[in-house]
Design a protein that fits this description.
Length: 171
């Protein structure tokens, strides 16, 4: 039971249109991004000390922050927004986490960019919602990465894992 006088939002007065499971600003896209980030963070190793990590397409900022707390050296690459870059400006990376882009062409381009940044044996972690196309994304990942598998399925989202081979044809 709530203490008397405490607002329903746990101290935050939410708009009357707010519903459980929905971001309080009413943005279902933001809610989907947050859910995909949460599922991804649950699947990733808890300790990433001294690992170089490239974060791609994290609109929430939650993934980069959490990975820094876990000890990772984080670089961020976004293709949209004020800090948008056409290609990552980072050096070699041990691990990359990618938020599923909205377009298959964007996904292919992001996978090529990430593969070019990862060291041989580096890990790819791709997250997205089922209704965004993550169920079929493993086929695109398998074109460049080995050991491809779905490692987590929760809250209508999935996390796909892949490992960068020592040699990738055409890269």
């Amino acid at each position: 039971p709530r203490p008397t006088g405490t607002p329903r939002g746990g101290g935050i007065d939410l708009p009357s249109r707010a519903t459980p499971g929905r971001f309080f600003l009413g943005s279902p896209v933001h809610d989907r991004d947050t859910t995909a980030a949460d599922v991804l963070l649950g699947a990733l190793p808890q300790v990433l000390t001294d690992r170089r990590v490239l974060v791609v397409g994290d609109t929430t900022g939650k993934v980069a922050l959490s990975l820094r707390v876990r000890g990772a050296e984080v670089s961020v690459w976004n293709r949209a927004g004020a800090d948008a870059l056409s290609w990552p400006e980072t050096g070699e990376q041990d691990l990359a986490v990618v938020r599923l882009p909205r377009d298959k062409g964007e996904l292919d381009m992001a996978l090529h960019a990430v593969a070019a940044q990862l060291v041989p044996g580096g890990e790819l972690w791709l997250s997205g919602a089922n209704d965004e196309g993550i169920k079929s994304a493993d086929k695109r990942v398998a074109a460049l990465f080995s050991d491809v598998e779905t490692v987590d399925i929760r809250r209508r989202c999935r996390v796909v894992f892949g490992r960068r081979p020592a040699r990738i044809e055409g890269l």
